[in-house]
Amino acid sequence: MLAISGTPLLDLGAAFGIAFNYFTIIYLTGLGGLFSERSGIVNIGLEGMMTIGTVAGAWGSVRFGPTEGLMIGFTAGALFALIHAVATVTFRVDHIVSGVVINLVAVGLARFLSQIFFGQATQSDPCGSPCQFGRLDLPLLSSLPWGLGRAFQNMSPVVILAFLIVFPVTFVLHRTRFGLRLRSAGENPEATRTLGVRVATIRYTAVMLSGALAGLSGAFLAFEVNDHWREGQTVGLGFISLAALILSNWNPKRLMGAAMLFGFAQAIPLRLNDAPIINLLPPQFIRMIPYAVTIVAIAGFVGRVRPPAAAGKAYEGGGGST
């Protein structure tokens, strides 16, 4: 079989299949952060919102099925994000402090919900195919030779949705009244208010949407990728999604590239740990690769990005009627 420097293309194709799953998680969560920060609310609580989405989505998939599991994860993330919205928009709490609290509360809340849902605090029992969507093979691409077609076989429909969602998101942000007001609130909320726009309403909506997308990706992680809920299974993916968002300069199209880069970095220790050069590293360093790639990417590009002008800044009109 053909190989690249001793690494079978079969393994490379399978690695890309794993990368697509993690791309989906990072991209959906990153889009959530994009909506929030474009409105002016920094959201480092995405990790916690994902965590709530994992336990709620896993329970929903076990109880009702995969579609309902996604919707329950989506709803749970939105409701949990409401705490961040109330703190930052109404009470003008520092955005970073609120996000840290969200992440800390999520750990205990997830364990509490797990005890209620599954009768055990740290994990659920595997559910298998009844809790998952049917897998798809993409025409033509799944037939690529030398094992590369494996990347496009047995794909979850949610992965395809993640690749397609960039079109409606871009349209909403740049071609709708809501998108214009959202971006305006993140750049100059005072000017936005003078136009009669309710800045608080826009920001509440954006933060809840960020939690909803993080919860959706958490649900996907729990029952589509891991087949069950397990405490700590987000392993920093919410923070990696934030890094991808910064790397993309808050652009949904560029975010796709950043999410794919970090998604493939996640696949290296899972599938390519026996590849030449990589297999020379100690196992601990191989497991560090996704986080090392994140640090290097951010260190190299962070000086070239420009966040929304009002992101993270207290806005005195945030708790009023406008």
How would you describe the overall organization of this protein?
The protein is an all-alpha fold. Helix content is 65%, strand content 1%. It has a single domain, classed as ABC transporter involved in vitamin B12 uptake, BtuC (Orthogonal Bundle). Mean pLDDT is 90; it is low at 1-7 and 318-322. A two-stranded antiparallel sheet has the order 1-2. It is built from twelve helices and two strands.
User: Helix/strand/pairing class, anyone?
Assistant: mainly alpha
Shape: globular
Quick one: CATH class?
Mainly Alpha
Distance between the first and last residues' Cα:
65 Å
Mean pLDDT over the residues: 90
Determine the strand fraction and express it as a percent band: under 5%
Helical fraction: 55-70%
Number of strands: 2
CATH architecture: Orthogonal Bundle
Domain count, please report it.
1
The parts where pLDDT drops under 50 for at least 5 residues are 1-7, 318-322
Query: Helix count, per DSSP?
Result: 12
Largest sheet: 2 strands, antiparallel
Strand sequence of the main sheet, in spatial order?
A: 1-2
Order of helix and strand elements from N to C terminus: EEHHHHHHHHHHHH
Write down the CATH topology: ABC transporter involved in vitamin B12 uptake, BtuC
- Rg estimate, integer Å: 20 Å
Q: What's the assembly state of these chains?
A: single chain
